């Protein structure tokens, strides 16, 4: 990260759902709330959020959550979108609500919307604040966020301790940030149940975008593909011609929306701790131990 980037004020934007799921899968199922319901994911997420706040001490931060696996505008465009994922069980749904409550009780701005996903809320916030001179640190391991990284922005895979800017996207995927949505449309994204163009893998997608620059240019000049020094170039050209409209559809899914109801100014993202009794009531309900309670209270002081 260059010196001019470090002089720009930073906002931290956290992909909350990712860290709840990680906690759900990694924490032992031995924690229960006052009603006897499991809260292992809440404990793991709370530890993560406390550690992040202690380590970074951010003045401006937001956590974005997905509201549903089935209500995004992408589901209306393409019903199979994310249909390969099982809906969270009731015990986890309950814990998502509790994780959101913990987030707000620590004075952290919460973003959630039924039509747009967490990626879109973060992307729109990045876009809005970049124009106001802010740089963004996106806390997530999700490769989709690569398309958002401008010159001064970073992505931070917190669990692995890895940070990268726009150049890191090219190192990982072989394409530049502005090509990531096109890349995923071509080679597909199994995590989101987006098939991509049959027979076009990650290396081929990167090679095509390196040559043509964009999906639109590739499809406009599709006759040139057969003559590229590319393994199976003739067959690749035929598949691209056959699946051109699907590729354009998939890009509508892979492109992060920049018109979602994200934060329009950094003031919205300033930490504003609510009354401490809100946190105390949560600690009682979640049966947090003395160490966690002390940690949480220190973050409010």
Automatic annotation (TrEMBL):
This is 5'-3' exonuclease (Including N-terminal domain of PolI). Residues 7-289 form the 5'-3' exonuclease domain. Keywords: DNA-binding, Exonuclease, Hydrolase, Nuclease. Coiled coil: none annotated. GO terms for biological process: DNA replication, Okazaki fragment processing. InterPro entries: 5-3_exonucl_a-hlix_arch_N, 5-3_exonuclease, 5-3_exonuclease_C_sf, DNA_polI_H3TH, FEN, HhH2, PIN-like_dom_sf. It comes from Rhodanobacter denitrificans. Pfam families: 5_3_exonuc (PF01367), 5_3_exonuc_N (PF02739). GO terms for molecular function: 5'-3' exonuclease activity; 5'-flap endonuclease activity; DNA binding. It comes from the Bacteria.
């Amino acid at each position: 990260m260059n010196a001019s980037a470090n002089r720009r004020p930073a906002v931290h934007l956290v992909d909350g759902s990712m860290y709840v799921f990680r906690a759900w899968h990694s924490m032992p199922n031995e924690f229960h709330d006052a009603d006897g319901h499991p809260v292992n994911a809440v404990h793991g997420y709370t530890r993560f959020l406390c550690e992040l706040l202690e380590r970074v001490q951010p003045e401006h931060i937001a956590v974005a959550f997905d509201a549903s696996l089935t209500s995004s505008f992408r589901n209306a465009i393409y019903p199979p979108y994310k249909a390969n994922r099982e809906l969270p069980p009731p015990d986890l749904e309950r814990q998502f609500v509790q994780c959101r409550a913990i987030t707000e009780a620590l004075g952290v701005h919460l973003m959630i919307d039924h039509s747009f996903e967490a990626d879109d809320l973060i992307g729109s916030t990045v876009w809005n604040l970049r124009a106001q001179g802010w740089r963004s640190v996106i806390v997530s391991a999700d490769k989709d966020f690569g398309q958002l990284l401008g010159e001064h922005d970073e992505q931070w895979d917190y669990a692995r301790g890895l940070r990268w800017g726009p150049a890191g996207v090219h190192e990982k995927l072989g394409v530049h940030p502005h090509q990531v949505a096109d890349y995923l449309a071509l080679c597909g994204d199994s995590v989101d149940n987006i098939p991509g163009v049959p027979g076009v893998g990650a290396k081929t997608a990167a090679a095509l975008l390196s040559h043509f620059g964009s999906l639109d240019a590739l499809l406009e000049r599709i006759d040139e593909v057969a003559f590229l020094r590319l393994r199976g170039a003739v067959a690749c050209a035929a598949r691209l011609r056959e699946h051109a409209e699907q590729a354009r559809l998939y890009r509508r899914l892979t492109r992060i929306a920049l018109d979602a109801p994200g934060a329009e100014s950094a003031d919205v993202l300033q930490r504003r701790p609510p009354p401490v009794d809100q946190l105390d009531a949560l600690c009682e309900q979640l049966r947090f131990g003395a160490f966690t309670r002390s940690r949480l209270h220190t973050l409010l002081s």
